[in-house]
Task: inverse folding
């Protein structure tokens, strides 16, 4: 009887403590090709250029993980602003920034720059796409 009671207590405690973390809501990204413009909730985002892509290629050991820096033009309410986004590592004195637009209701952020370099394909790539997403502000 004691063994059965102990087994029930262990089983019950695994159910109680098994789901402590809530599931993270997946982000849905919008691809913006180099030179193209997309509009999200009335905000226009144009992917202007890749300033730097020094990310360490896949399957290669690097001293520094590298980074990608891109420029985008954001237009909202008739106001146009150029934004610089940094994905990856930052140097001392620099700030990591992936925000394109922010209001009291929502924000538009950069997720990543694709494609990620590989050991076979490094250097300038004409097929760059910027992945962006809209996030609700609470």
Result:
């Amino acid at each position: 009887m004691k063994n059965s009671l102990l087994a029930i207590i262990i089983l019950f405690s695994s159910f109680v403590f098994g789901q402590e973390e809530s599931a993270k809501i997946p982000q849905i990204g919008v691809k913006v090709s180099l030179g193209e413009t997309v509009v999200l909730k009335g905000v226009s985002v144009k992917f202007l250029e890749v300033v730097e892509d020094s990310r360490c290629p896949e399957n290669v050991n690097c001293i520094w993980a590298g980074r990608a820096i891109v420029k985008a033009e954001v237009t909202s309410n008739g106001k146009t602003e150029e934004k610089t986004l940094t994905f990856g590592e930052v140097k001392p004195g620099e700030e990591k920034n992936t925000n394109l637009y922010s209001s009291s209701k929502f924000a538009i952020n950069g997720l990543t720059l694709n494609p990620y370099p590989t050991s076979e394909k490094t250097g300038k790539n004409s097929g760059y796409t910027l992945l962006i997403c809209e996030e609700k502000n609470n």
